[in-house]
């Protein structure tokens, strides 16, 4: 437990880092005690990841000092940080798909491969992190990959383990297992820096919390005795946005229908989709839960038209009763299907182009093009309307998309698609990397769209979000879609069982 | 030296204008050192190369003559490069264009129709587009890398040319030289500037430049191409067809190169020869990049590159500079330009050293 | 000597310049960098090696000089590509033009001169075998380049260095995050690739056809780039491809010798035609290309 008089294992003093005009961290002080699980709490864009990268030697602070075990240090590379006894598990895993578990480990850990394989097995048994050293990483589930990441750190006997949003990718049942592992580590003398924006998890696991907002420390607390509301206020600077008005869905006719949809995509590491049955009606929001990599990308592409079906199987995707499976994205958009993709930069918008040029991307047939020539004035006006109506914070239509923050760009893309007045709206990860206020605004917009009669399909990894806005849920796992589950009568646990396949097995036995 | 590149919020226009000049300056310095090292009078060679094309009307008219094919090809290539379709086989498309155009006067040496040369231009464009179209088919249908295919097709085109000139098309009265007979007057392009060899090919190139400007800077078709190139996933999202972009890029650039080839045989050469291209296909790649892949910039860079050719010829005469030196200068120019062009989107800052 | 014996005996030597250059390019591409300047690096290596061989008569020295020349040219390419994140296609073409020009510049006084090739090694018993004897009688460089292929296959499969190169090529951002020096590894791969291309050129100009002429590489650098695709980035398959193309070029000579009425230009174009056809055969298997290709190939990396 956090010792009273013990001196801190890691201490940061006035650490600052900026990227050009953006201050990622300003004068951050932090003290991590031995044998503690210390939370770094903050919303997206608060500067948590940058701070951890400086501790781990990936980035160098502009100003400030780092003390390790009482002595000043300046880790200039991850190798130096590891030599000190610091390990880090990244949010987007730093694993290599085409290498085996053992090879991935050996990139960081010295020693003979055979000895490493034995240690991977031993440590795995000790901490509940079992994984086959000879398996190729692309064949592993997300949970197994995280185990590899953690094992790779543990094999260097760290005194401090940093985990960046480790639960973001895990189904609820696996979160509990991860927490057991982390507690076991703490009890054996490893301090843990646990980065998250999920208040409940921090209250369940951590014994100290440092709260960051806009790159500045806004508070310190013992999360075990501090209530969620106080933590949230420190995190976002005001009270949590009120929950959405509980509007009731009045489903109308079926707008989007997928029937007997089978598909094997080009990604050799993704599971094929099998027998997908899905209907989205006017005036309802249907959610697809599940962990990315279970066929989400292919499903989205098949609905959006980025992936077309051969003419013979065209009927597997239907819009307003008409087969559209053979139509491309542009033709489907003309028929009233709009799509907000998961990657905003490079897919939903072109980073090097100005916002008005990005408006042309999907809205070109809304009077932005005349006789083959782009009408700049019309495109600029369209963009100005979008910026104003959707509260996009930007200097104006001539700013490049790449210069916008994640939340603002998401509002722009969402706004552009909503301005197309779609009959069906497909949204993938609506609030990924978006701050709390913008996320609330985006969810509110989706509910308003539904109330106005739009059919909305949301694919998301965030279960809480799906519960907040969806009328019905499906879970996509290993290319198969669960039956429809009405949101009011299901639970996070039930969704979680579908996510890890337990419910499916039971379902199969029952049938 | 430790430095970091920091991305600018938006591209720097002043740097975009400055980058080619910086590249020219650096190329001049390094070329001087290389020329001196191989024992040529470097100062004289460099001065002749840079200045002589602009000091008298005759040399300048020759610059304009060379500018036509370079400008024409580079405008076509730049369209593809912005769509990330790397046609590096313009050399072969030029040769095919020259062959297709030459077929008419070779097969109909007695033809006197005034439509002969226009027909040759059309044939040339068809020839170039056909050769590039093979690469487009290979890329879109067979997934084969267009860089390698266009290059291999160039090497094959050279062999086709050799075969024609040593075999069926060889001028019987040509003392066994590998070339066709001289074409009749109706097969030759009208002149543009009296008293010089400059012909209306320069006009074709100018029209192509205006067309490229409208297409790429104003038109939605150019917008689609650029999106396919800079953000393929965004193009897929919008529903812009990548295959159509490949076909369009290759057909346009192939036709442009073919037209350039036709204009060479119907212009300064007056017959089909082995040396129908003097490396224009590769030089045009440099022209396209040096002009920032922008239709207006390419007009300027094609002038610079053709002056380099004429200046190189003069330097060979007056300063004993080997012909290969022009290739060295071209390679240096592109290398330095690529370095300088990075500064359009990035700022250089000195890397911060971790505070102790 | 029967045509078969002739082909067997000549194939490996004809394949060696291709093999060396393709192995070099393979390492570069495995690290995520596309260097299209192989033709130029080979030409420069050939010219420099020829000049050194002509003046000193020393083959070892000539090979060292050729390798250094190729490496030096490659490092010119590394500056815009690694330090300035430039477009790799354009930078590779620039290198090809520059190095090709330099080879012509340096080689001009030596145009059409010849040097003495290195002797082939007679292996007791094996070299006297019927049919296969010719194939087993090769010079040391041939054996060394085959050994290099085996060494590389082993390194990619079983050494930390190989894993690191693969990691950098697959996901440079993740490699950087765990502390792998991405740019240093890429620079080393580019230099190594240049050295092998230089060696390939040196072999072509001082052993295989021991004379210098501008343009003597004749597209072999480009075929080497294509071979990496043919081999779907697997060392063994790349080596097999190089040997097949070596056999093809010897086959040309055999056909010519038989006096069959095929225009010599058609034979000269044959390797290029074969490249286009094989490229289509291999590439049209999209799933396999996707599975084996290097994920970050051609993408600039900057932190």
Task: Give keywords.
heterotrimer, A: 511 residues, alpha/beta, Rossmann fold, 3 domains, seven-stranded mixed β-sheet, C: 303 residues, mainly alpha, ABC transporter involved in vitamin B12 uptake, BtuC, 73% helix, globular
Outline:
The complex is a heterotrimer of chains A (511), B (356) and C (303). Chain A is of the alpha/beta class.
List the helices and strands and how they pair.
The complex is a heterotrimer of chains A (511), B (356) and C (303).
Chain A: E1 10-19, E2 22-32, E3 37-41, H1 48-55, E4 63-68, E5 71-73, H2 78-84, E6 86-89, H3 101-106, H4 113-127, H5 142-154, E7 160-164, H6 172-187, E8 191-196, H7 199-205, E9 208-213, E10 216-221, H8 228-236, E11 254-263, E12 273-281, E13 284-289, H9 296-304, E14 317-319, E15 322-323, H10 329-334, E16 337-340, H11 355-368, E17 369-370, E18 373-374, H12 376-389, H13 406-419, E19 424-428, H14 436-451, E20 455-459, H15 463-469, E21 472-477, E22 480-481, E23 485-486, H16 492-500, H17 502-510
Parallel strand pairs in A: 3-8, 3-9, 6-7, 7-8, 13-20, 13-21, 16-19, 19-20
Antiparallel strand pairs in A: 1-2, 1-4, 4-5, 9-10, 11-12, 11-14, 14-15, 17-18, 21-22, 21-23
Chain B: E1 3-7, H1 13-37, H2 42-51, H3 57-82, H4 90-107, H5 116-142, H6 146-166, H7 201-218, H8 220-230, H9 232-238, H10 242-269, H11 280-290, H12 295-318, H13 324-345, E2 346-350
Helix pairs in contact in B: 1-2, 1-13, 2-12, 3-7, 3-8, 3-10, 3-11, 3-12, 4-5, 4-6, 4-10, 4-11, 5-6, 5-10, 7-8, 7-12, 8-9, 11-12, 11-13
Chain C: H1 3-30, H2 38-56, H3 59-83, H4 88-107, H5 132-135, H6 140-158, H7 160-170, H8 172-177, H9 182-208, H10 220-230, H11 235-258, H12 264-283, H13 286-292
């Amino acid at each position: 437990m956090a010792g009273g008089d013990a001196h801190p294992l890691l201490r940061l003093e006035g650490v600052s880092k900026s990227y050009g005009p953006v201050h990622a961290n300003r004068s951050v002080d932090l003290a991590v005690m031995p044998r503690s699980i210390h939370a770094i709490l903050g919303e997206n864009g608060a500067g948590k990841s940058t701070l951890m990268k400086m501790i781990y030697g990936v980035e160098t602070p502009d100003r400030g000092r780092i003390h390790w075990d009482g002595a000043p240090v300046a880790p200039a590379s991850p190798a130096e940080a590891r030599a000190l006894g610091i390990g880090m598990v990244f949010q987007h895993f730093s694993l290599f798909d085409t290498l085996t578990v053992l090879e991935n480990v050996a990139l960081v850990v010295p020693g003979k491969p055979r000895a490493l394989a034995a240690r991977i097995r031993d440590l795995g048994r000790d901490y509940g992190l079992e994984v086959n050293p000879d398996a190729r990483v692309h064949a592993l589930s997300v949970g197994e990959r995280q185990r590899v990441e953690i094992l790779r750190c543990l094999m260097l006997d760290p005194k401090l383990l940093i985990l960046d949003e480790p639960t973001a990718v895990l189904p609820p049942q696996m979160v509990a297992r991860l927490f057991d592992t982390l507690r076991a580590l703490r009890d054996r003398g490893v301090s843990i820096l646990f980065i998250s924006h999920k208040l409940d998890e921090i209250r369940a696991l951590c014994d100290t919390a440092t709260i960051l907002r806009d790159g500045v420390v806004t508070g310190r607390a013992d999360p075990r005795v501090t209530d969620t509301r106080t933590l949230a206020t420190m995190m976002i600077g005001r009270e949590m946005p009120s929950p959405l008005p509980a509007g009731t869905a009045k489903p109308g006719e079926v707008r989007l229908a997928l029937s007997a949809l089978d598909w094997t995509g080009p990604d050799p590491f993704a599971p094929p989709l099998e027998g997908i049955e899905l209907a989205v009606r006017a005036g309802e929001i249907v959610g697809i839960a599940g962990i990315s990599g279970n066929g989400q990308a292919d499903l989205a592409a098949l609905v959006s038209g980025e992936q077309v079906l051969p003419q013979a199987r065209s009927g597997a995707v239907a819009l307003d009763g008409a087969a559209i499976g053979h139509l491309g994205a542009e033709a489907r958009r003309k028929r009233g299907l709009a799509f907000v993709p998961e990657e905003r930069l490079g897919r939903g918008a072109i980073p090097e182009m100005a916002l008005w040029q990005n408006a042309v991307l999907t809205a070109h047939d809304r009077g932005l093009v005349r006789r083959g020539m782009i009408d700049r004035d019309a495109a600029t006006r369209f963009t100005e309307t979008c910026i104003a109506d959707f509260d996009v914070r930007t200097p104006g239509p001539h700013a490049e998309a790449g210069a916008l923050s994640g939340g603002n760009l998401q509002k722009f893309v969402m706004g552009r698609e909503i301005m197309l007045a779609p009959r069906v709206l497909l949204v993938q990860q609506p609030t990924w990397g978006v701050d709390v206020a913008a996320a609330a605004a985006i969810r509110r917009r989706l509910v308003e769209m539904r109330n106005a009669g739009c059919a909305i399909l949301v694919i998301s990894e965030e279960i809480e979000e799906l519960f907040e806005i969806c009328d019905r849920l499906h879970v996509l796992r290993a290319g198969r879609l669960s039956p429809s589950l009405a949101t009011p009568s299901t639970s996070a646990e039930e969704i979680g069982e579908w996510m890890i396949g337990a419910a499916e097995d039971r379902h199969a036995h029952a049938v | 030296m430790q430095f970091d590149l920091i991305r600018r919020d938006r591209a720097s226009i002043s740097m975009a204008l400055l980058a080619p000049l910086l590249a020219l300056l650096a190329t001049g310095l390094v070329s001087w050192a290389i020329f001196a090292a191989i024992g040529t009078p470097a100062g004289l060679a460099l001065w002749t190369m840079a200045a002589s094309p602009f000091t008298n009307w005759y040399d300048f008219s020759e610059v304009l003559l060379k500018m036509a094919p370079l400008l024409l090809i580079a405008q076509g290539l730049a369209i593809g490069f912005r769509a990330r379709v790397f046609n590096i086989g313009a050399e072969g498309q030029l040769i095919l264009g020259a062959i297709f155009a030459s077929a008419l006067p070779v097969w109909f040496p007695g033809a006197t129709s005034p439509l002969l040369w226009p027909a040759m231009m059309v044939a040339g464009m068809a020839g170039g587009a056909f050769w590039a179209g093979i690469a487009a088919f290979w890329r879109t249908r067979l997934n084969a890398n267009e860089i390698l295919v266009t290059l291999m097709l160039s090497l094959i085109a050279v062999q086709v040319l050799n075969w024609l000139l040593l075999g069926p098309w060889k001028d019987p009265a040509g003392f066994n030289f590998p070339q066709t007979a001289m074409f009749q007057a109706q097969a030759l392009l009208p002149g543009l500037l009296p008293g010089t060899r400059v012909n209306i090919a320069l006009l074709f190139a100018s029209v192509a430049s205006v067309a490229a400007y409208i297409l790429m800077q104003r038109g939605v078709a150019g917008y689609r191409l650029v999106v396919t190139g800079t953000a393929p996933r965004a193009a897929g999202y919008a529903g812009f067809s990548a295959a159509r972009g490949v076909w369009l890029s290759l057909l346009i650039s192939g036709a442009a190169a073919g037209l350039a080839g036709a204009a060479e045989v119907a212009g300064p050469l007056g017959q089909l020869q082995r040396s129908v291209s003097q490396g224009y296909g590769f030089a045009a790649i440099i022209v396209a990049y040096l002009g920032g892949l922008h239709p207006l910039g390419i007009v300027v860079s094609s002038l610079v590159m053709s002056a380099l050719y004429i200046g190189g010829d003069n330097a060979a005469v007056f300063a004993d500079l080997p012909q290969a030196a022009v290739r060295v200068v071209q390679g240096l120019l592109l290398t330095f330009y690529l370095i300088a062009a990075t500064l359009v989107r990035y700022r250089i800052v000195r890397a911060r050293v971790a505070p102790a | 000597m029967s045509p078969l014996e002739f082909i067997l005996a000549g194939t490996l030597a004809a394949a060696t310049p291709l093999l060396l250059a393709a192995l070099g390019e393979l390492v570069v591409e495995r690290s995520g960098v596309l260097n299209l300047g192989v033709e130029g690096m080979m030409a420069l290596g050939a010219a420099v090696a020829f000049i050194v061989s002509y003046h000193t008569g020393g083959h070892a020295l000539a090979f060292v000089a050729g390798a250094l020349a190729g490496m030096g040219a490659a490092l010119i390419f590394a500056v815009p590509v690694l330090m300035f994140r430039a477009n790799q296609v354009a930078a590779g073409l620039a290198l090809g033009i520059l190095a090709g020009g330099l080879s012509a510049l340096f080689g001009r006084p030596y145009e059409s001169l010849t040097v003495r090739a290195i002797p082939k090694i007679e292996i007791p018993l094996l070299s006297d075998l019927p049919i296969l004897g010719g194939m087993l009688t090769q010079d040391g460089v041939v054996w060394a380049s085959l050994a290099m292929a085996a060494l590389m296959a082993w390194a990619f499969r079983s050494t930390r260095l190989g894993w690191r190169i693969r990691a950098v090529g697959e996901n440079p951002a993740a490699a950087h995050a765990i502390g792998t020096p991405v740019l240093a590894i890429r620079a080393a791969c580019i230099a190594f690739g240049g050295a092998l291309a230089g060696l390939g050129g040196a072999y072509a100009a001082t052993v295989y056809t021991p004379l210098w002429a501008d343009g003597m590489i004749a597209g072999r650098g480009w075929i080497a780039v294509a071979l990496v695709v043919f081999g779907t980035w697997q060392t063994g398959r790349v080596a097999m491809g190089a040997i097949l193309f070596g056999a093809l070029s010897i086959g040309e000579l055999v056909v010519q010798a038989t006096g069959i009425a095929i225009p010599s230009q058609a034979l000269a174009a044959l390797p290029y035609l074969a490249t286009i056809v094989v490229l289509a055969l291999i590439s049209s298997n999209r799933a396999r290309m996707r599975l084996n290709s290097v994920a970050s190939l051609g993408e600039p990396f900057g932190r």
